[in-house]
Amino acid sequence: MASTFHHHVAAACEGAGMESSDLPAVIDEHAFSAVWGSAFEDLLARDQPDGRNIVDDYLKRRGWKESVPTREYMIGLRRSVLSLYEVSDVVPGESLALRDLVRGGDPVRVTERSGSRSLHQWDRIATRVIPVRAGAVISGTLLFFDHESSEEILASLEHIYGALDTDSDVDAPADPRDPLGPRDPRPEPGNSAGVIA
Questions:
Q1: 142 or 164: which carries more pLDDT confidence?
Q2: 13 with 25: CB under 8 angstroms?
Q3: Could you give the C-alpha distances from 80 to 6, 10, 74, 179, in angstroms and in order?
């Protein structure tokens, strides 16, 4: 986990003239927890160099110990991608709609009791939308962005993917709006009847 965390923060820390080990002293505990959580979720969602995945291995070996909703969440997290979303249609204590600013598409309604009390129309957050049987939820990590910072991120992504589109020596992801590139096609959880055991 330490190398994954370092990979996520090294460039930003270097740009700020600090070591990644200094980060907890520079940003508040809540912000540090959010950054650490984001790196951890990314570790869970990625394939390792040997092609294996932590979530897949865990569910294969110990998944029987977890409840159906927990297994469903872990499978959804495994398939999820961190993205930048704009909040709309907030129903406090119940749900909110998120529009993916990176990959586009229609807003997705997510069940979220706590976040729907603190988030407001037009807020911008980075998180993972996780499909579950009852609809969708967001992951445990929320990174808040002001409008200006989020626009800078979107412009940077556009610049990077625009450069990839014109540089024939570099392989661009199959979908330039998906920063992680193609994902492994995985069967939906469950047996032939669609039941998660």
A1: 142
A2: no
A3: 21, 23, 10, 12
Q: What gap in Å lies between CA 153 and CA 84, rounded to an integer?
A: 9
Q: Measured between alpha carbons, how far is 195 from 197 in angstroms, rounded to an integer?
A: 6
Q: Which of 38-52, 62-76, 147-161 has the lowest mean pLDDT?
A: 38-52
pLDDT of the residue at 2: 65
Give the global pTM.
0.73
Residue 125 bridge partners (DSSP): 85, 144
Q: How far apart are CA 122 and CA 147, in angstroms?
A: 9
State the amino acid at position 139 in one-letter form.
Answer: S
Q: What is the DSSP string of 33-69?
A: HHHHHHHHHHHHHSPPTTS--HHHHHHHHHGGGS-HH
Residue 85 scores a pLDDT above 90:
yes
Architecture of domain 80-187: Beta Barrel (2.40)
Length of the chain in terms of residues written: 197
